[in-house]
């Protein structure tokens, strides 16, 4: 079985993140708090509650090396949390937004983080030593709609975003004094802050869940029209491919290797996509059993009830309320999965990852033992 | 830019209309030979429908409608139809359902059920999300 651990933490989880040593998980139970749980001998126990936001927290990221948590919330603010003694101390980051913050991610070097927002902007934040303050720099006027997801290129400069205007964009986030210090002047080859490197116009509807491959050569993102897009050689002459999903759309993706992607979403079951030797991407299979068991209807998803009624009425006239109410979802997740996080070493190969969703579960998956999939890794 | 596109489209429209007429004759003869599945395949082929010209769209719909209504064996039709046509067929089914005409709706709903079973929800999602390439 690919799912090695399933735990129900809350009625609903908006996002989650893991501590550097993966012993603790931080998640938002669909309110203004972050709960941190630690595993004590088979039992998850709550060790911290981070309370500072006023509204639902839409994004959490936990930095690996610096052990800092960044949260983004619909209250339009971000906090960076530092562990001092046994207390998590928040530092307010003024994002200067007039709409909700929707997603957040630390850059690979952890000296910057990016926040996507409903204000059609992306904030790139960095620490200013002199003022002991996180400064937010905005990329404005590029997005025509909310920014649903952000992803950092391994080079710490390029940032990919997806938006509900259907586009995926790549920006330069070069910040003087922050990026030049460490990279020995090699940054001169990059464009200046906020410059649009490329705009990908593949999706006809909302775009979600963008990720770079470990090398930064390939970009994957999903559209709400049940499509997943793969873009190789992101640069002047990109190579785009799309794969149509059979079922409901995806929400987020994760590269487990250069040639393999896990997609999660409204279908409640993770889907595996892989590239063959020629670099052609295709759907491989579902991870874990896809439950198609149903007593009253052929459709194994939460839509079955509505569909049953739809067809029932067409055949038997009206007043057909006898279609069996369907609690037939019986997979590992019982509702939309909206977050997927890698587990284990931040190398090029990820065997383990975790998913969380609207059903309030955090599930840990392991690809070890999935022989057919390991060939792609 | 939209204006320039419209101009090209208008220029093209006549050519497309001629192709649709040609298609209609082919479909009529296929239907006479009792090959409704072949007729539907012919109707769905090509991208004439993806024009922005309303006159072409409605002319093409008449052709597709003709072929759709002739289908008796839905399962047989779907099993011999290439998966690449599923998305476009779904678009026409919704167009049929939107007409409100009883026999058309009955037929489209019958095919819709089988097509959804075969092609999945993704097909419906792609129809709903695609506001650019309408039929």
From TrEMBL, chain A:
WD repeats by residue range: 50-91, 140-172
Record-linked PROSITE patterns: WD_REPEATS_1, WD_REPEATS_2, WD_REPEATS_REGION
Gene Ontology BP annotations: Arp2/3 complex-mediated actin nucleation
Keywords, alphabetical: Actin-binding, Cytoplasm, Cytoskeleton, Repeat, WD repeat
Ranges where the Anaphase-promoting complex subunit 4-like WD40 domain occurs: 17-106
Its job: Functions as a component of the Arp2/3 complex which is involved in regulation of actin polymerization and together with an activating nucleation-promoting factor (NPF) mediates the formation of branched actin networks. Arp2/3 complex plays a critical role in the control of cell morphogenesis via the modulation of cell polarity development.
The species this protein was found in: Acacia crassicarpa
GO cellular component, one term: Arp2/3 protein complex
The keyword Nucleotide-binding is assigned to this record: no
Family: Belongs to the WD repeat ARPC1 family.
GO molecular function, one term: actin filament binding
Pfam families, alphabetized: ANAPC4_WD40, WD40
Entry-linked SUPFAM superfamilies: WD40 repeat-like
Quaternary structure, from the entry: Component of the Arp2/3 complex composed of ARP2, ARP3, ARPC1/p41-ARC, ARPC2/p34-ARC, ARPC3/p21-ARC, ARPC4/p20-ARC and ARPC5/p16-ARC.
Compartmental location: Cytoplasm, Cytoskeleton
Record-given protein name: Actin-related protein 2/3 complex subunit
TrEMBL record, chain B:
Keywords tagged on the record: Cell projection, Cytoplasm, Cytoskeleton
GO cellular component: Arp2/3 protein complex; cell projection
Gene3D superfamilies reported in the protein's UniProt record: Actin-related protein 2/3 complex subunit 5
UniProt-listed Pfam families: P16-Arc (PF04699)
Principal location class: other
Subcellular localization, as worded in the UniProt entry: Cell projection; Cytoplasm, Cytoskeleton
GO biological process: Arp2/3 complex-mediated actin nucleation; regulation of actin filament polymerization
Record SUPFAM superfamilies: Arp2/3 complex 16 kDa subunit ARPC5
UniProt similarity note: Belongs to the ARPC5 family.
Primary role: Functions as a component of the Arp2/3 complex which is involved in regulation of actin polymerization and together with an activating nucleation-promoting factor (NPF) mediates the formation of branched actin networks. Arp2/3 complex plays a critical role in the control of cell morphogenesis via the modulation of cell polarity development. Functions as component of the Arp2/3 complex which is involved in regulation of actin polymerization and together with an activating nucleation-promoting factor (NPF) mediates the formation of branched actin networks. Arp2/3 complex plays a critical role in the control of cell morphogenesis via the modulation of cell polarity development.
Self-association state and partner proteins as the record states: Component of the Arp2/3 complex composed of ARP2, ARP3, ARPC1/p41-ARC, ARPC2/p34-ARC, ARPC3/p21-ARC, ARPC4/p20-ARC and ARPC5/p16-ARC.
Name under which the protein is recorded: Actin-related protein 2/3 complex subunit 5
């Amino acid at each position: 079985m690919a799912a090695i651990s399933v735990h129900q933490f809350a009625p609903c989880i908006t996002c989650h993140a893991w501590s550097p040593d993966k012993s603790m998980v931080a998640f938002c139970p669909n309110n203004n708090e972050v709960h941190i749980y630690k595993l004590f001998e088979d039992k998850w126990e709550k060790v911290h509650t981070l309370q500072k936001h006023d509204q639902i927290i839409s994004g959490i990221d936990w930095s690996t090396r610096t052990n800092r948590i960044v949260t983004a919330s619909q209250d339009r603010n971000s906090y960076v949390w530092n562990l001092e003694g046994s207390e998590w101390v928040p530092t307010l980051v003024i994002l200067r937004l007039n709409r909700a913050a929707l997603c957040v991610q630390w850059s690979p070097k952890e000296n910057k983080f990016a926040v996507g927002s409903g204000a059609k902007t992306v904030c790139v934040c960095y620490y200013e030593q002199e003022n002991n303050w996180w400064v937010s720099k905005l990329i404005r006027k590029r997005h025509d709609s909310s920014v649903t997801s952000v992803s950092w290129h391994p080079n710490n400069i390029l940032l990919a975003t997806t938006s509900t205007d259907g586009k995926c964009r790549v920006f330069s986030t070069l910040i003087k004094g922050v990026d030049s210090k460490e990279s020995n002047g090699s940054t001169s080859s990059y464009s200046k802050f906020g410059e649009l490197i490329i705009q990908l116009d593949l999706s006809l509807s909302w775009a979600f869940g963008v990720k770079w491959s470990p090398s930064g050569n390939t970009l994957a993102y999903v559209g709400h029209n049940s499509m997943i897009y793969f873009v190789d050689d992101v640069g002047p002459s990109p190579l785009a491919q799309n794969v149509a999903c059979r079922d409901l759309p995806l929400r987020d993706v994760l590269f487990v290797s250069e040639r393999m992607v896990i997609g999660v979403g409204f279908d409640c079951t993770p889907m595996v996509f892989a590239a063959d030797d020629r670099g052609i991407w295709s759907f491989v299979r579902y991870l874990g059993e896809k439950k198609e068991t149903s007593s009253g209807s052929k459709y194994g998803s939460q839509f079955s009830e509505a569909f049953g009624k739809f067809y029932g009425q067409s055949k038997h006239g009206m007043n057909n309320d006898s279609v069996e109410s369907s609690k037939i979802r019986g997979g590992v997740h019982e509702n939309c999965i909206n977050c997927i996080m890698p587990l284990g070493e931040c190398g090029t190969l990820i065997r383990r990852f975790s998913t969380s969703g609207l059903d309030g579960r955090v599930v840990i998956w392991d690809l070890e033992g999935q022989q057919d999939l390991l060939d792609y890794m | 830019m939209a204006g320039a596109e419209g101009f090209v489209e208008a220029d093209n429209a006549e050519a497309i209309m001629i192709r649709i007429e040609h298609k209609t004759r082919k479909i009529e003869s296929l239907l006479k030979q009792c090959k409704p599945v072949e007729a539907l395949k012919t109707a769905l082929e090509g991208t004439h429908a993806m024009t922005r010209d309303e006159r072409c769209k409605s002319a093409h719909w008449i052709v597709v409608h003709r072929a759709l209504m002739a289908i008796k064996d839905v399962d047989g039709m779907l099993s011999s139809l290439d998966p690449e046509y599923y998305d476009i067929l779904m678009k026409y089914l919704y167009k049929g359902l939107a007409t409100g005409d009883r026999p058309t709706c009955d037929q489209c709903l019958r095919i819709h059920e089988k097509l959804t079973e075969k092609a999945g929800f993704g097909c419906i999602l792609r129809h709903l999300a695609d506001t650019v390439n309408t039929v």
